[in-house]
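Handout, page 2. Input:
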Amino acid sequence: MPLSINTKKLEDGTKMDPNAPIVDIIKLDFGYSPEVPVLKDINVTLDKPEFVCIMGPNGVGKSTLIHCMNRILKFTNGTIMIGGNDTKGMKLKELSSYMGYVPASSEDSFPLTVVDTIMVGLQNDFKFGTNDDDLKRVYETLRMMKIEHLAMRNFNELSAGQHQKVMLARGLVRTPKIVLLDEPTSNLDIKHQIDVTKTLSMLPKLKGMLVIMISHDINITAKFADRIIMLSGGGIYADGTPSEVLTKENIRTVYGVDADVIDVNGRPHIILNDCFEDAYIPTDLGPLED
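Output:
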């Protein structure tokens, strides 16, 4: 049975407006103190299911941005709208019914099988217990992530890469309208990085999901992303298609790296040459969170 997007009315009666952008971020600021801004005047509209990658060097606020979106962090100023609803007025439980999240790394340890670990991801659906439909959804997600052979393995016995795939499956099993992924391929070898990223890039078309992923792999992102948001200095430096964002000039300015950019099958491919000391670093920002 194919998975379907969770479109039911939320727990408190809140309805998502199908004509509103899926995510609308308006004049967003965040800082741990007024003297130390981390994000400044972020404006992003995501109005359709697509595979969006957030890029930028360490410390520019990539994780901070998605933590503001799912309210792990309380932003200082601005508005984040989800389906036409201000997230400030939404309960965390209802927000989680619409938005999935997979952190960059997890120290979670479960004395459970992989099937049971992924089943935990269904418990946000405001119900208790499981049924045959739940089990079908779990096994479909296992097959999608190509880890069905791990189904009855103990979660605690898995390698770091297998662990990461299971946590990703747990975040996807409900097929939320939005899923936020913080470097979901960081523990995977190159083959599985490509395979997982390719799978994620197909979810907008296959499942109608908006997939937002933080990535440091410039060429895998260039190959699969529909849209790239490049952060620098706590703000958006570039936003557009891979060809529009991953230019020689942008890479040099933001990353401080000299690179050649060639076209491969209509996608940019980056050949890294050398690094410089002139990457864009604003003088008015304090220490930043990645």
